[in-house]
């Protein structure tokens, strides 16, 4: 998570290349700047390119990541 984000509640959404949301994890806590999301299980999705959007629910900030499975 970006270091400027404080410790808050987060949501992560994963989208396929067509823009359809294929996975969502809501309301989990991470510490800003030093945490990794290790339990984003994408095993049920086919191989390919995805976009993961991490949202800081308190500060209303978003960070986008490309994910290749």
Plain-language structure description:
With 69 residues, this protein is mainly beta. It contains no helices and four strands. A four-stranded antiparallel β-sheet has the order 2-1-3-4, with no helix packed on it. A hairpin with a 5-residue loop joins strand 1 (8-15) and strand 2 (21-30). The radius of gyration is 12 Å and the shape is elongated. The model has no long low-confidence stretch (mean pLDDT 79).
Give the tags.
4-stranded antiparallel β-sheet, elongated, 69 residues
Question: In a few lines, what is going on in this structure?
Answer:
With 69 residues, this protein is mostly beta strands. Helices cover 0% and strands 49% of the residues.
The amount of beta strand, in percent, is over 45%
Global mean pLDDT: 79
Task: Kindly name the structural category.
Answer: mainly beta
Helix residue percentage:
under 10%
Tally of individual helices: 0
Low-pLDDT regions = none
Radius of gyration: 12 Å
Instruction: Describe the largest sheet.
Output: 4 strands, antiparallel
Distance between the termini: 20 Å
Strand order of the largest sheet: 2-1-3-4
| Helix and strand sequence | EEEE
Overall, the morphology is elongated
Report the oligomer: single chain
The count of strands amounts to 4
């Amino acid at each position: 998570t970006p270091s400027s984000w404080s410790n808050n509640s987060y949501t992560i959404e994963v989208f396929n290349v067509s823009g359809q949301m294929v996975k969502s994890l809501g309301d989990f806590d991470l510490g800003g700047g030093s945490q990794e999301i290790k339990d984003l299980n994408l095993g049920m999705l086919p191989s390919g390119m995805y976009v993961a959007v991490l949202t800081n629910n308190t500060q209303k900030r978003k960070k986008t990541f490309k994910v290749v499975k």
